[in-house]
Amino acid sequence: TGRKGRRESDGTLIADHRSNHPVHRNLSFLGGNQGTAVKVEYGDAAIAADGADAHVIRRAFPHTYGQRLAHFLPKTANAPDATVITEHPAVRVGVVFSGRQSPGGHNVVWGLYNAINSHNPSSELIGFLGGTDGLFAQKTLEITEEVFSSYKNQGGYYMLGRTRDQIRTTEQVKAAMTTCQALKLDALVIIGGVTSNTDAAQLAETFAESKCSTKVVGVPVTLNGDLKNQFVETTVGFDTICKVNSQLISNVCTDALSAEKYYYFIRLMGRKASHVALECALQSHPNMVLLGEEVAASKLTISDITKQICDAVQARAEKDKYHGVILIPEGLVESIPELYALLQEIHGLHDKGVFIENISSHLSPWASALFDFLPPFIRKQLLLHPESDDSAQLSQIETEKLLAQLVETEINKRLEEGTYKGKKFNAICHFFGYQARGALPSNFDCDYAYVLGHVCYHILAAGLNGYMATVTNLKSPVDQWKCGAAPITSMMTVRGWSRGPTASQIGKPAVHIASVDLKGKAYELLRQNSSSLLMEDIYKNPGPLQFQGPGADLKPISLCVEDRDYMGRIKQLQEYLEKVKNIVKPGCSQDVL
């Protein structure tokens, strides 16, 4: 079993084939094929994206804010100022899965294991069983080639497992430090998303302050694709999730076009941001996709959204079309202003210890009226206790059923009034989430995760603490990827938030979720085709996730259309500025000025 660190072969040809499938092993672009040397070039000190946040972040992270960027280079790179690390003493490294399972997570461990052993075979990799709870309780498994052999290129986190997804309270941080000291760990690698990497940054700061020698490294692994910033182009697992979901969506599109009598409302996992919904829409071409960022920007109410869908249904009915497919991100419920305000009020009552059965009677008049308007099943789901990050339990709130019911009610009303003259409206609802997050990872996610694992060792070899492993230029072939490390604190922002009408503003530095950029090229591509997608049924079926042949090495559309060579642009601008500096000197002509 996974808890014993060994999974017996399940006998399926695909799973066994994937375990034996080699990832991209030519790591010369990382320096991985140059013996035991690690070549690192340090850049400028990294700063917060928003200068106004810098003083708050620096005050909260005095030991780890303002550290320099690190770039890991091949041996042939022309970098006279680079440092070449040739001494690699045996190390003990701990690794923990923190956060929801995401396809490719196992390959981070594989890459890390191979990297530490290739540099010193006496090094040890220690996995924590049961996620962060296992970290606190010192439940460990030594990872060896024999242990890991059946987890290569496999989905899920079942080799080590995961439980609680945080290292946040004073007791939890203290327990983590006690474990690292007791096991004499040189480094702790935390695999997870925005919340897990925020915790990793705090842990690194605490370790530095306490003079604990363990270095903390974060890895961007989350299916939501919402850990995106100037240093991180996408996350491990996002590609797989979108490809698996897109096939399911496309199958539903084909079914809708065949039966010609159902509207499918499909909710997609992805937490607060709508990256998964956007990418799946680009891959499968449904009739509509409701992005939470659009709804929030336009301040659309639940009534506005209902009307928008009903108008689309009516327009299609006028063309004798009584079917369609509508994508809904699970975070939509927190993007609708009145529902978000209601959730905040409910969560505030949870904080005050009000029992679930009594919450409805403690709501303010407006919130009580809205609560009573909603169907009973949604009321029950909205009353669920919030997650550890204070967000609603989005996977449990059936927004797709709510919208389907409201649309059906409105269409029936229009039918009675004579403003809608079409056939009866029929809705079928789906939630695609758990079906995809345990999938075998795509070739891209396998390679990306494996390389990140190697980068983690390079960070350790360079003696860096509080950094995230990064790989950029991802839309190019693997041998053109650029590997590095960025201080997690440079990815932080400070956002004020309040709960309830009398709550005070609180601002705490954190790696926050990156929303869909409504000015970005991926969103622009979707909107260019939105009218034709709505009316013309130009459904697209990418087929099942491919491991060989045509389509096997395709990457997310939203990754490929964006120009995300952030560091490349900085370097180019710095070169221009240096040229200007050399030209603009006392005595230069007026024409130069």
UniProtKB/TrEMBL annotation:
Belongs to the phosphofructokinase type A (PFKA) family. PPi-dependent PFK group II subfamily. Clade 'Long' sub-subfamily. Keywords: Allosteric enzyme, Cytoplasm, Glycolysis, Kinase, Magnesium, Metal-binding, Transferase. Residues 92-458 form the Phosphofructokinase domain. One of its GO terms (biological process) is response to glucose. Tetramer of two alpha (regulatory) and two beta (catalytic) chains. It comes from Aegilops tauschii subsp. strangulata. The gene is PFP-ALPHA. PANTHER family: PYROPHOSPHATE--FRUCTOSE 6-PHOSPHATE 1-PHOSPHOTRANSFERASE, PYROPHOSPHATE--FRUCTOSE 6-PHOSPHATE 1-PHOSPHOTRANSFERASE SUBUNIT ALPHA. Coiled coil: none annotated. It is found in: Cytoplasm. InterPro entries: ATP_PFK (IPR022953), PfpB_PPi_PFK (IPR011183), Phosphofructokinase_dom (IPR000023), PKF_sf (IPR035966). Regulatory subunit of pyrophosphate--fructose 6-phosphate 1-phosphotransferase. This is Pyrophosphate--fructose 6-phosphate 1-phosphotransferase subunit alpha.
